[in-house]
Write a structure and sequence with these properties.
Elements: E1 6-14, H1 28-31, E2 33-35, E3 48-56, E4 59-62, H2 65-78, H3 82-85, E5 94-100, E6 103-110, E7 113-118, E8 124-126, H4 128-133, E9 140-143, H5 148-152, E10 157-158, E11 162-166, E12 174-179, E13 185-191, E14 203-210, H6 214-223
Parallel strand pairs: 9-12
Antiparallel strand pairs: 1-3, 2-3, 4-5, 5-6, 6-7, 7-8, 9-11, 10-14, 12-13, 13-14
């Protein structure tokens, strides 16, 4: 088996082994995101099965207090509510680097909690769970249940899927996307049009970071260690 920092590698598994106990079954928890063989196939015990597995390497380290201060100063200016959350300015942030669409995204940990995400273009956004944990005052875009799965797969928010809006925003502002049933945070997005026009046809919110994306999964795997 071979693996690169990010890419598709082949892994050979014997049918009936713990990693592949039944035809068409695959354990992401054990071997990463993978695609099982055709569910209709029925390999016998001892048959060799080839799975293509995506491996993503991560790197975690601490940055200096000076570097941390620069990130924190930007964050409190750009992200509403963070000034009340970040009470320590002379602190060394931890950074988790995550491969993201061929580039690198960075998750900044404050007091061991994943608080910020720096996207490859340099944009700073809150890590998704920090919005609810710290009650950050973001405008909310409420979407219908039919939009939940596409958004969780990285789709942008389309106007017809918007049910309601909580708060006002302008084009370019950060918003949190929530579902209409539970009000759970699905994604952090950037408004492509003002709140007064967000329900119109077409793309309304750019999906920047969502539950289940590589950043989310990388942080989750760190917490499971």
């Amino acid at each position: 088996m071979s693996a690169t920092s990010e890419g598709i590698s082949e892994i050979f598994i014997m049918a009936g082994s713990p990693l592949y106990p039944v035809p068409g079954w695959c354990s992401p928890a054990s071997i990463g995101a993978c695609r099982a063989p055709d569910p209709g196939s029925n390999p016998g015990p001892g048959a060799i099965i080839t799975l293509k597995v995506r491996f993503i390497s991560k790197r975690k380290y601490a940055i200096t207090i000076r570097e941390s201060k620069s990130i924190i100063d930007r964050a409190v200016k750009e992200i509403p509510g963070l000034r009340d959350v970040i009470t320590k300015r002379k602190i060394s942030l931890q950074v988790l680097e995550v491969p993201w669409k061929g580039k690198i995204a960075k998750v900044y940990y404050y007091d061991r909690y994943p608080l910020l995400v720096e996207l490859p273009d340099g944009s700073l956004v809150p890590f998704l769970t920090s919005v609810e944990k710290f009650k950050l005052p973001f405008p909310k875009v409420v979407v219908d249940l039919g939009a939940v799965k596409p958004i969780a797969n990285g789709a942008h928010v389309m106007g017809p899927g918007v049910r309601d809006i909580e708060g006002e925003f302008s084009e370019g502002d950060l918003v949190v996307v929530v579902d209409e049933k539970l009000g759970a945070a699905l994604a952090i997005g950037r408004a492509l049009r003002p709140s007064s026009e967000v329900k119109e046809k077409g793309r309304s919110i750019l999906n920047l970071h969502h539950a289940g994306d590589p950043i989310w999964r990388a942080v989750s795997s760190e917490e499971e260690r």
